[in-house]
Write a structure and sequence with these properties.
- The complex is a heterotrimer.
- By secondary structure, chain A is an alpha/beta fold.
- Helix content of chain A is 40%, strand content 17%.
- Chain A has 12 helices and 15 strands.
- In chain A, the strands form 5 sheets. In chain A, strands 11-10-12-9-13 form a 5-stranded mixed β-sheet, with helices on both faces. A 3-stranded parallel β-sheet of chain A has the order 5-2-6.
- Chain A is globular.
- Chain B has one domain: MetI-like fold (Orthogonal Bundle).
- Chain C is an all-alpha fold.
- Chain C has a single domain, classed as Orthogonal Bundle (MetI-like fold), CATH 1.10.3720.10.
- Chain C is built from 10 helices and 1 strand; from the N terminus they run ααααβαααααα.
- In chain C, helix 6 packs antiparallel against helix 7 and helix 8 packs antiparallel against helix 9.
- The chains are: A alpha/beta, B mainly alpha, C mainly alpha.
- Chains in contact: A-B, A-C, B-C.
- Strand 1 of chain A pairs antiparallel with strand 1 of chain C.
Chain lengths: 297, 218, 236
């Protein structure tokens, strides 16, 4: 067999294989869509499409308890679990999770990389202007992760403003970064960290004095890392919540989604899912997306 | 219209700030690479019993692993063992170490290129080892190394964009953050690419000229 | 460390994706290398010049900027690429530009005599290229190509930044969930090292296989074997 592998044969074979592989990849990879904001094709019915292909693509973050990816690759967490339950009622069997940083969630949605965001992307004015939120699924509070004993006594956003030497770690494009910016905390006091784990490590490495993140996310991180403590809910951080987010052109899908979500909330399944992840189903009763979208930022 | 001129012009100051950080990264990193690489090459050449083998393995290991992962280890893993610096310093040091491995190879060939007659003459004149190295061998070896140093400097300039992954706020990171806060990626990314090109292309032409001037006389 | 073992299947998936990305972009790289490299040797400036521009632009801008551009900026033109395609495209075009220079250098450094002999025999430029220059240049191209491929393999780690689920991406995920930062990153550091060692060994094997003087090498090896047999026999 080796004897037949003359230089010419191998090179010819390699060339053909290479060409074939590349053509295949490019062909499957290329689709042309009109970018969001330029009038996406009115005909794309997301509900029909999702039912036909059997799944909905969702942007998630892998930040428990809001979203979590298990060791076998399955996507779970409070928001995806609720999304899956509602999708089942809509006739969509499965949910395909794509892990992405918070800062890319809305751009990715608009660029049609996924059809929904269910990652605990908290509602606020600037986000509500770019996407359509479902009715809220969870209501959330913010806290600081600090070294044990809270040596710098950081408990409120006002504390951060008062001491200009304090460095606060935040996720880029995250809700907490928005809170600090709205409160006019100077950029010099903000330390960017890429994800939850990096934020905790920044504390340990003394690159930051506190890590600003939702209370429940910090508590989840502290389960595998006992080297820091979580302060109580920050009183001067706006209280807000989140639901699933969709493109502004998917109004029909949003309507159908909200109908099934309301129906789900009336069943015990909803409270079960929230309880399972440590959320309080009662807190979201009577709260509307319009209300939460008024949150500054 | 797809390209927004007014927006593009408005972000130029921010991008230039990022470019300045990139330039600083590159210059400091090249300095570290040049010095560390020389030390590594000399140690290997001297064939010190255990140290030379360790250095040789380190050079092979650094050349065989991605800069991104090395940066992650330097930034995330080292602090666990107590070694923690800010992002910029970590970035400079790790890219310096990465390129020093390549520089070590260049120095090695430079040192080998020095005619054996030079070594013999130094022995005949009973020059001490330090004098031989610093006054005779290295000046000749480094001459041929300078154009390669220039090439690696340009490469490092482009590679430094990888350090945005460990939160160094250089040109690439600046372009990205403009994109995430305004949801417009086209202008910042295109202009960042253009800035990289506008610096590296003339620089590489310059290095080509240097190469021709310092070409080893055959 | 136990967390690594539990998540090993995910790491394995990531490894497979890394290899897939490397193979696909390597193939594209080779295609670009030969197309652009040969174009640069063309006597017609209309062919030479655009190839030159392509090579300078892709070599002169940073690979990670190119990757992000294909991923984030192209959608603004209505072109939507999935992450894998964007990443493979950026890697292949970028490394292809570097490899094109290797091709150009290797072919143009072939002894002038070969080209002249070809002309004397009445071969067309295409025939000369295909039957003489390229086959003879392959051995000279292999070592630098090997370098380009190892470089490409290391650069696949960057695709994790455009959401391709390669080894690095999976590692970040596992680290996020388990908090085992040191174990995870050091593990993939070693894995990338092993991959590049394997690739280097493959390149060495190809170099030996396609060496111009392999017949001379074979004769040498045979002679060595025979002398050692003679020694053994002689000592009986």
């Amino acid at each position: 067999m080796i004897a037949n592998l003359t230089r010419r044969n191998v090179l010819q074979g390699a060339g053909v294989a290479a060409l074939g592989a590349v053509v295949a990849v490019v062909a499957t990879g290329c689709t042309t869509v009109t970018p969001a904001g330029q009038g996406a094709a009115e005909g794309t019915d997301l509900l029909a499409l999702a039912k036909k292909q059997g799944y909905l693509r969702v942007g998630i973050a892998n930040e428990p308890p809001y979203t979590q990816v298990n060791s076998d690759g399955t996507v779970t967490g409070c928001e995806p679990d609720v999304l899956k339950a509602v999708c089942k009622r809509l006739g969509i069997d499965d949910v395909q999770g794509i892990i992405t940083p918070y800062e890319s969630m809305i751009p990715g949605l608009q660029a049609n990389r996924w059809d929904a965001v269910a990652a605990g992307l908290f509602m606020k004015q600037s986000r509500c202007a770019e996407v359509l939120y479902s009715e809220p699924v969870i209501v959330s509070t913010e806290s600081f992760g600090v070294p044990i004993g809270n040596p710098k006594k950081i408990l409120t956003v006002a504390d951060v403003l008062a001491d200009s030497s304090l460095r606060i770690a935040v996720l880029p494009g995250g809700f907490e970064e928005g809170i600090l910016n709205t409160a006019k905390v100077p950029a010099a006091q903000q330390v960017t960290v890429k994800d939850g784990r990096s934020g905790i490590e920044a504390l340990a490495a003394d690159r930051a004095d506190a890590f600003f993140l939702p209370t429940l996310s910090l508590r989840a991180l502290s389960e595998t890392d006992k080297g820091f403590e979580v302060t109580d809910q920050v009183p001067d951080a706006p209280r807000t919540g989140s639901g699933a987010a969709f493109r502004t052109t998917d109004t029909a899908f949003l309507k159908a989604y909200n109908v099934e979500l309301a129906a789900l909330k009336l069943t015990p399944e909803f409270a079960e899912i929230l309880d399972n992840w440590g959320f309080d189903a009662a807190a979201v009763e009577g709260v509307t997306a319009d209300e939460l979208c008024q949150t500054a930022g | 219209m797809i390209w927004d001129n007014a927006f593009a012009i408005s972000i130029i100051p921010m991008l230039l700030k990022g470019l300045w950080v990139t330039v600083q990264l590159t210059l400091l990193g090249t300095l570290i690479a040049a010095v560390l690489g020389l030390i590594a090459a000399v140690i290997r050449r001297l064939q010190v019993p255990v140290l030379s083998h360790i250095v040789t393995f380190m050079v092979i290991f650094v050349r065989g692993t991605p800069l991104l992962i090395q940066a992650y280890v330097a930034f995330f893993v080292l602090p666990i063992y107590g070694i923690s610096f800010n992002a910029f310093t970590t970035g400079v040091v790790i890219i310096g170490i990465n390129y020093s491995a390549y520089m070590a190879e260049v120095y090695r060939s430079g040192i080998q290129g020095v005619p054996t007659g030079q070594w013999e003459a130094a022995t005949a004149l009973s020059l001490p080892a330090a004098r031989t190295w610093f006054r005779v061998i290295l000046p000749q070896a480094v001459r041929t190394v300078i154009p390669m140093l220039g090439n690696y400097l340009i490469q490092m300039f482009k590679d430094s964009a990888v350090l945005s992954a460990i939160t160094v706020v250089e040109l690439m990171a600046t372009a990205q953050s403009i994109g995430t806060s305004t949801y417009r990626y086209l202008e910042p990314l295109t202009m960042a690419g253009a800035l990289f090109f506008l610096v590296s292309y003339p620089a590489s032409r310059l290095v080509n000229k240097l190469e021709r001037r310092y070409a080893p006389k055959q | 460390m136990s967390a690594i073992i539990e998540y090993a299947p995910l790491l394995w998936q990531g490894l497979m994706t890394t290899i897939l990305v490397a193979v696909l972009s390597g193939a594209l790289c080779l295609i670009i290398a030969f197309t652009m490299g040969l174009a640069r040797l063309s006597p017609h400036w209309i062919v030479r010049w655009p190839a030159g521009v392509f090579i300078e632009v892709f070599r002169g801008t940073s690979l990670i900027v190119q990757m992000f551009w294909f991923f984030y900026a192209l959608p603004f033109f209505g072109i939507q690429l999935n992450p894998l395609t964007a990443a493979v495209l950026a890697l292949g075009l970028n490394e292809g530009a570097y490899a094109a220079e290797v091709v150009r250098g290797a072919i143009s450094s072939r002894a002038k005599g070969q080209t002249e002999a070809g002309i004397a025999l009445g071969m067309s430029p295409a025939q000369r290229l295909r039957r003489i220059l390229i086959p003879q240049s392959i051995p000279a191209m292999l070592p630098p190509f090997g370098n380009v491929m190892v470089d490409l393999l290391k650069n696949t780690s960057l695709v994790s930044l455009v959401t391709v689920t390669d080894l690095t991406f999976r590692a970040q995920m596992i680290r996020s969930t388990t908090g085992e930062t040191a174990a995870v990153f050091l593990t993939i550091l070693v894995m990338y090292f092993l991959l590049s060692v394997l690739l280097a060994m493959l390149t060495k094997w190809l170099e030996k296989r396609y060496a111009l003087d392999r017949r001379a090498l074979a004769v040498q090896r045979k002679a060595l074997r025979q002398t050692s047999i003679k020694d053994k026999v002689g000592s009986l």
